[in-house]
Amino acid sequence: MSTSSSQFWQTRRGLIWSNPKADDSAHIRAALLRPTFGQLLDIALEFGLERLGAEWAVLDREGTAAAERARRPLFMSVFIASYERGSIQTPVYGAA
Fold first, then answer.
1. What angle do CA 85, 12, 74 make, to 5 degrees?
2. pTM
3. N or C: which end of the chain has fewer CB within 10 A?
4. In Å, how far are 13, 55, 89 from 92, measured between CA atoms?
5. In this structure, are residues 54 and 95 in contact, taking their beta carbons and an 8 Å threshold?
6. Residues 43, 52 contacting (CB under 8 angstroms)
7. How far apart are CA 28 and CA 9, in angstroms?
8. Reduced to 3 states, what is the DSSP secondary structure of residue 33?
9. Calpha distance 52→84 (Å, rounded)
10. Residue 21 and residue 83: Cα distance in Å, rounded?
11. Residue 36 backbone class (left: φ over 0; alpha: ψ -120 to 50; beta: rest)
């Protein structure tokens, strides 16, 4: 982790706007339920892919409608499959 988790979430208040003191797990799960690739990548870089995968596993086991909706977007499916294969790579910007 590069910063304190509270500092990390300060710039992402919209995830759990009703409870700014929510723990890391609640924030990560909220991000997984409303996924954007950039946001998930930031979280993976901050907390690690293992943590991101563990939080997804909790949501997946719960089997809620929200988790099922989150699984549907193509990039989420790709992100999850890449995580499971251990092959998520960060892009190198400006590389030709």
1. 35
2. 0.68
3. C
4. 28, 27, 9
5. no
6. yes
7. 10
8. helix
9. 11
10. 28
11. beta
Q: Which two structure tokens, joined as six digits, stand for 5?
A: 């988790």
CA dihedral 19, 75, 91, 46 (to 10 degrees): 20
Rg (CA), the chain: 13
pLDDT of residue 6: 76
The domains of the chain are located at 5-85
Q: Are 70 and 58 in contact (CB under 8 A)?
A: no
Per-residue pLDDT tens listing for the chain (96 residues): 445 677 788 777 667 767 777 889 999 999 998 888 888 888 888 998 889 889 988 998 998 888 888 877 656 667 777 777 776 655 544 444
CA dist 68 to 11, 54, 71, 72, 90, Å? 27, 16, 5, 7, 26
Contact present, 45 and 1 (Cβ < 8 Å):
no
- In angstroms, rounded to a whole number, what is the distance separating the alpha carbons of residues 95 and 34? 30
